[in-house]
Amino acid sequence: MKYSFNQMDRNMFKENLLKTIEELLALQKIHAYNVIKFILSVDEESEKSHNSNDDFMRLGILSKENINDREFMLEDIINMLVHPRLHYPLWINVSVYEIKEDIIIIKLKSSSRFRRPSELLNKETNHPPFKAIT
Question: How does DSSP assign 110-129, residue by residue?
């Protein structure tokens, strides 16, 4: 079933991330974990044009100083990736980075371009802008 993603709020964005993680872990047959943490990298996409919303996020909230060598919890990562004007990264690739005992670390590789929900990529996954990468 295809959904309309012309409107999205913070909760739907979070649900879409959780659906992607569920899909990813099922594909990789990972079932035993208690905690999910995240690491984040941002694709500079230097060959693409950026607008002021993109620059606000890329140079401020998602600057290398704020994200490099850090692990984040779910709510922190949602807060970082949702633009105050409810714009979202154009795409986000989701993969398993590391498993430590009962902790799974998920890697999010994000576009540096932030757009309205109707413009997001990966709609075919039914959880845009996220795509599970195995």
Answer: EES-EE-GGG-S-GGGTSTT
